[in-house]
Automatic annotation (TrEMBL):
This is NXPE C-terminal domain-containing protein. Residues 25-171 form the NXPE C-terminal domain. Coiled coil: none annotated. InterPro entries: NXPE4_C.
Length: 173
């Protein structure tokens, strides 16, 4: 019997995935092996930052560097030289609900994708959503269309690039 979602329930730790009726869990070793030789670029809101934090915390060989920037908006980076992993996170561009952040530190997802060559060792993971709920739908649609255009161009120049789109959390407003 599954408990209905409500405040106060223990928060499950993401530790696997569900695909084709099979749940697979990752150990520290399998997580490291999965990330080995990868350049991972994560952009989005705080839920995407939580993915960054999860990897930085559960892959012991990843070491987070202090870039002396506001933590809420980044950019953040963690590296594992031995396994050739670099994990990047930064907040998506405006609109953003965060503390003071230098405008120069706010990059749009589409521009970040356009700035990378891509390839078999490159992974993009991004989300947009909650920060757009107080804006007209056209604003969100325009942003998503720009990201789509950038992803299509990326996959045209480097079809072996992995692109993962995280949808918004279903419980949000």
């Amino acid at each position: 019997l599954t408990k209905k979602c409500r405040p106060g329930l223990q928060i499950p730790v993401p530790a696997g995935f569900y695909l084709k009726d099979v749940t697979r869990h990752f150990t520290t070793q399998t997580k490291t092996q999965c990330l080995k030789d990868k350049h991972i670029y994560m952009m989005g809101d705080s839920t995407m930052r939580q993915w960054f934090e999860f990897f930085a915390k559960t892959v012991p060989t990843l070491k987070q560097m202090n870039l002396h920037v506001p933590y809420q908006s980044g950019p953040l980076i963690a590296v594992d030289v031995e396994n050739n992993i670099d994990l990047h996170w930064r907040a998506h561009g405006v609109p953003l609900r965060t503390r003071k952040t230098a405008v120069a530190s706010l990059h749009y997802i589409s521009n970040e994708i356009d700035d990378q060559a891509g390839g078999p060792h490159t992974v993009f993971v991004f989300n947009v959503g909650p920060h757009f709920t107080t804006y007209p739908l056209d604003f969100y649609t325009h942003r998503v269309l720009r990201i789509r255009k950038a992803v299509l161009a990326l996959l045209q120049r480097a079809p072996d690039t992995t692109v993962i789109i995280k949808t918004v959390n279903t419980g949000y407003k």
